[in-house]
Amino acid sequence: MIREATGIVSPEGGGAKTLVVIFLRGGADGLTMVPPIGDRDYYAARPTLAVKESDILALGDTHYGLHPSMEAMQRLFHEGDLSIYPAVGSDDQTRSHFYAQDLMEHGGSEAGGWLGRFMRFREGESPGALSAIALGKVMPEVLRGAPAAAVIDSINRFSLSQRGEPTSKIETELAELYGRDQTLMREVAKDTLQAIKRIQELSKKDNQPNHGAQYAVDSFSQSLRQTAQLIRAQVGLEAVSLDLNGWDSHFAQDTLITPLMVRLSEGLSNFRRDLGHLMEKVTVVVMTEFGRRVAENSSFGTDHGRGGVMFALSEGGGGRVIGDRPELESGILVGPGDVPVQMDYRAALKPILSHHGAGESFAKIFPSWSLKHSSQES
Amino acid sequence: MEAGRLGDYSRRFFLRGTTAASLLSATSCRKIQNLLGLKEEHVLCLPPPNEEIDLISHAISRLSFGPTPSDYHHVKKLGVTHREAVNAYIEEQLNPQGIDDHHAQRAMRRFESLHAPLGEMYEYKEKHLLEQLTSATLMGAVQSKRQLYELMVHFWSDHFNIDVSKKDCKWLKAADDREVIRKHTFGNFLDLVSASALSPAMLWYLDGRQNRKRQPADYPNENYARELLELHTLGLNGGYTQKDVMEVARCLSGWTVRSKKRFFKGRVEFDPASHDDGAKVVLGHQISAGGGQKDLKDVLKILCEHPSTAQHLAEKLCVRFIADQPSAQSIKDVAETFMATSGDLTKVLRRVFSTEEFLTGPRGGKLKKPFELIVSSLRATRAEISSTANLIDYLVSLGHAPFQYPSPDGYPDVAAPWVGGLFWRWHFAIGLARNQIHPKIRIREAKLFQEAGGIAGFSAVLFGRKPTQEELMSFHRSGEPLAMAIASPAFQWR
User: Fold this and answer.
1) Residue of B211, B219, B390 best to disrupt the A interface, most CBs of A under 10 A
2) Contacts of B32 (CB under 8 A, 6+ apart)
3) What's this model's pTM, rounded to 2 decimal places?
4) What percent of chain B is modeled with pLDDT above 90?
5) pLDDT band at residue A109, thresholds of 50, 70 and 90?
6) Which of A25, A158, B29, B75 has most Cβ atoms within 10 angstroms of its Cβ?
7) Per the CB < 8 Å rule, is B422 touching A158?
8) Would strands A82-89 and A343-344 be described as parallel, antiparallel, or unpaired?
9) Other beta carbons less than 10 A from residue B107's beta carbon
10) Closest CA to A304 of B207, B222, B208
11) Which residues of A touch B489 (CB under 8 A)?
12) Residue bearing the bigger pLDDT, A76 or A193
């Protein structure tokens, strides 16, 4: 069984394009990360939380800037690698984390995640065992339905035995019993057994970051580091999902999210540096389930809103603000006072997925949305 | 008839308790333990004898964290027919006070910080509290004979999820576990929600303590109100609007909890000056102005009596005990009992276990979540555990450490999100069978096999049915039959 299974993994994993999806869970505040420049309504709505105009990091001649803690991302923007989407969101109206995250990860009312469907329906050869990886603890919704997906928290601990004794006889029998299983575990078992073999080979090789990249020690930065390691090792990695949690800033927003913005900004910048020219085959997408209410609440925080920000990092594909966010005058706000969604996240993803080989399958990746969208266009 | 039988059982357990107590005074503890241990554990290992999971094995696997080698025998002798035995087992488990559990309770007393009064909890290091609470939860699940009770504690801990990593929850979750979850586990739903609403840990976790309206321009903090509607009571499609969320938040404004910097830290209090005392309309019900702190009681009653709440809770319980996608009929039946008994949780559970689908529907079709897999392995192998440290590490690797789920909806209770974790399940199985998890965690393979009649008998204990020929051959070929049996597909399900 194992012999058959390993045949699917191409010995040369190189050539694969890798899409890294970072989910900022909790609803990240777009108006703090990407503040508007010279919008009086912003300062009126956020008497304590607005970023001071003199502190905002400019983005060329656009009327948006970045929070002062995100200098590294300003650099990525000016180097032409980072794109910024100031008012992205979904059609979710519930303002519920779980519903909005599910909707954004599933790509609509479908079961299973859009990244999983991308892996299943994209053009080209069928994906290998290490093609899709979630760095974390549980399988994120966005990857559900991928033909192969492994959840790992650290590639260094990837052996079935505590003390490194052989487990090959057990692995053979696991392949045997799970191979006959009738449930959804059969495929997972097959992929897991392949992944074990592949990563064991990988962890023997040199694994220091390149080009002077220095990642912080938190788990998000380390996940980025390991992602770069897997890309460098060319094991056929095509989709990676990782989370940066803790953006639900109902209370004391500044102290809560400033460290997260630093982590994101520095993490992306180190990842970019680490990969060097390999970045030409990599895109990083940063998304969040929704933005936050324009007006701050009484506890120096903000409540759940609608339109939020998205970022995309790719070699030479950025340096642009994509889409627009209107000035925050009250007439333009939606619901209880939220930034309107000016660009659907699926529209923002479309050219990115297409670059990664979605080809004609885009309609299969986002079936319900594509249907509605194409009928509107015609 | 049923009441009479229940009476008999209570008496029997009571008698056993007194016998043990009087013996204790006469001779040493260790001897008694051995005596009781011998009687309970060694003589009575009866592997399930059928090719398919029978009703007894089904009930054990759903009402507990998994069978010990003696459980099948214990349940079987409770009645003449399987159905009778299972009914008696259900009644036994629904009445935890009647179950002599002194062994587990003595073990629990070791976790002394969990018994401290609220204010004193702040004196402990936060890591210590979390470690004690997690260890106690794990050991309770492994050792307690009140298995259904422990299982429901687990269920409510997810339903009213609190992530200890948020602010003062580090110190206060242990009190929430004791005063909210454990106190009301088999009680009334309204009491449970009411206790949770004023739990210091919950007031921290969902920002209720910050929900105040002091000036007309203040927006209430609607975080708790939203989760109360969406997760704790009506459910996402329960028929409420954004306006209802805001009105509920207004009703709950003014309740807060003292921070650790003040005297009486952790104390919950109501500040009338921060309460929005105007009239409110919640789900069509008028709440008149000037209600003050009574608004909380009124609004929780409205939510708990709403039919969507019965429906939502019925569905969650059916998903827990019956199937990932339970039938509409089962949900309807349980919801009706929920409505008719005003959320009497013992009666609601009894109804779950009497649905046709529970009794005769598919068996072995619920994937064990990682916590359940680990606990069921430890129970089945009668592991001797004097340190839980590495077990907690496994729970973290498998993404299922208690009290650490990062969002208010609690760990998912269906298979799909958990199948990705096979690697760590196998890793654990191999580690446990090789006695490599921790020097202070020991299993005795030879003894287990001897009592059960070899790997065939022991895997019947694990699976609730006899193993197939293919399974047995594979176990033997692997050279490590115990590790293989625990890592095998069949043991991942309950």
Assistant:
1) B219
2) B20, B23, B24
3) 0.72
4) 76
5) low
6) B75
7) no
8) parallel
9) 17
10) B222
11) 177-178, 181, 183, 185, 189
12) A76
